[in-house]
Design brief:
Elements (H helix, E strand, L loop, with lengths): L1 H56 L7 H11 L5 E7 L2 E7 L10 E7 L12 H12 L5 E5 L2 E7 L1 H52 L17 H57 L5 H32 L7 E4 H15 L5 E5 L4 E4 L1 H18 L5 E7 L3 E8 L6 H5 L19 H11 L3 E7 L3 E9 L18
Parallel strand pairs: 7-9
Antiparallel strand pairs: 1-2, 1-5, 2-3, 4-5, 6-8, 9-10, 10-12, 11-12
Length: 487
């Protein structure tokens, strides 16, 4: 089918190109004809001026019509012109008939009955009339002057006009084979180029239907140049989307398998501990109350691990499902103090620093800020166990920025690309966690129309930055600052 369509387009394009080239040839031939006719017209005007001078020098009363014409012909150089003397109803024509390169070239004089002015009594053949009509269209005008009762005219020889017309016709016809050749070559090439995106799309779709899911980008000539290019662009966009979807599916499957492995590993231990201690309690295999208390505390701690994981999944699913957010305009610096204070208190052996700019207001749910910022600070404490943690709050004209900075080992490029993906935990498998903290933090910030970004340099540290649109102060915002405990 592609071959038949290509053949039809090649014939169509070839015909258009051939007609165009032939039309150019016709225009060139007409221009050449017009140039030659205009040159002949200039020669006729110049000859008429000479004839005028001759008529002035030699008075008309001394010559009859034939003698007058012989006098004029003897004084003029040979040319492709005809000298016509109209005397009453008699028409005399003088023209040169021999070698015009010889000064003494002979001429002939013919006498005929005159019909209309400067026209012979018997109509000329069709070819003569056509040559004269074309010459008139090209701007040729006959020149005449009065000589007493006679009229003397200088006109182009019909034979010369026909010769010019035939040469122009031959020039136009010479373009016929050239136009056919150019039409054939360009028609095939134009059809190939026009159909190339369509052919490539067809082949790619056939391969896709056969089960080959490899993306096959289709080349285009110009963006939105024509319908085939638009089809190719749409196909490329669809293939790019499909490629990204396949890559995302592969990555998600990998992440899910990793999460299942991590969850299994994380849940296996607490479930084993719970089952073991449940058996101990059921069999009452403990000796003292202190041992009983230790068993219960351990079971409670393991239950908390599983509860935390489930809570994070439920919270993230609720936010992803489009649960509405209730935003309050709060002083971000005060809210950050309230979030960081308990974390600092529970990690008194760590250096948790605050650098806060007061009166930085933004609209966000305080609980969601707690989830987002709390996860960032906890993440920094886990992945940068030896250096200080700095939490900064700064305000610009448009945003309030909260930064969590550590001096830990930093993140690789691959870890930066997937830092906010669900269940992604990087390459450090020895750090406890579910891989959901950063995903929760990012979603919490996005629900407040903010952004969460990360910058990191290996062996130097990592900076997470929350950017929230600045807001006007609300009357309900508390004014008493919280106090953070920090070494």
């Amino acid at each position: 089918m592609n071959d038949r369509l290509r053949a039809r387009l090649a014939r169509t394009f070839g015909a258009l190109v051939a007609f165009t080239v032939f039309g150019i040839g016709v225009v060139v031939a007409l221009i050449a004809f017009a140039i030659q006719v205009r040159a002949l017209g200039f020669a006729s005007d110049e000859t008429r001026r000479i004839v005028d001078d001759i008529l002035v020098v030699y008075p008309a009363s001394r010559y009859d019509a034939r003698a007058r014409l012989q006098l004029i012909m003897s004084k003029l150089p040979p040319s492709d012109l005809v000298i016509v003397v109209n005397d009453g109803r008699v028409r005399l024509e003088g023209r040169w008939v021999a070698d015009r390169g010889t000064p003494s070239a002979p001429y002939t004089i013919t006498v005929s009955q005159r019909g209309a002015f400067l026209d012979p009594a018997v109509g000329p053949p069709f070819v003569d009339r056509a040559a004269r009509s074309l010459a008139a269209l090209a701007g040729y005008e006959r020149s005449f002057t009065r000589d007493g009762d006679r009229t003397v005219a200088v006109i182009a020889d019909t034979g010369a006009l026909k010769s010019i017309a035939w040469r122009s016709l031959i020039l136009a016809l010479a373009f016929v084979p050239f136009s056919l050749l150019v039409g054939h070559v360009l028609g095939r090439e134009m059809s190939r180029q026009a159909l190339e995106p369509l052919v490539m799309v067809s082949e790619a779709l056939e391969a896709f239907a056969a089960g080959d899911l490899t993306p096959r980008p289709v080349r285009t000539r110009h963006r939105d140049a024509d319908e085939t290019d638009r089809l190719a662009l749409a196909y490329n966009a669809a293939m790019a989307t499909m490629s990204r979807a396949f890559a995302e599916r592969t990555r998600a499957e990998t992440a899910m398998r990793q999460f299942i492995a991590d969850a299994s590993h994380q849940l296996r231990t607490p479930l084993t501990v719970l089952r073991g201690f449940t058996g101990i309690l059921r069999r009452r295999e403990f000796d003292t109350n202190e041992e009983f208390t230790r068993i219960v505390d351990t079971m409670d701690g393991q239950s908390a691990i599983m509860t935390s994981l489930l809570h994070k999944l439920i919270l993230l699913e609720a936010w992803e499902s489009g649960a509405p957010a209730e935003h309050d305009v709060i002083d971000v610096a005060e809210a950050v103090e309230r979030v960081v204070a308990p974390i600092a208190d529970s990690h008194r052996h760590r250096d948790v620093r605050l650098d806060l700019a007061p009166n930085a207001y933004a609209a966000i749910d305080p609980d969601e800020l707690l989830h987002g910022l709390g996860n960032l600070v906890t993440n920094a404490l886990k992945y940068a166990p030896n250096g200080p943690i700095t939490v900064q709050v700064a305000a610009t004209e448009t945003h309030v920025r909260v930064s969590v900075i550590d001096e830990g080992p930093g993140m690789t490029d691959d870890e930066l690309r997937h830092a906010f993906d669900r269940f992604y935990r990087g390459t450090r498998r020895d750090v406890p966690g579910s891989g959901l903290g950063l995903a929760i933090a990012k979603r919490a910030v996005e629900r407040a129309n903010g952004t969460l970004t990360v910058e990191s340099i290996l062996s130097q540290g990592t900076r997470f930055t929350i950017a929230l649109p600045i807001a006007r102060r609300s009357e309900t915002v508390p004014t008493s600052p919280a106090v953070v405990s920090s070494p």
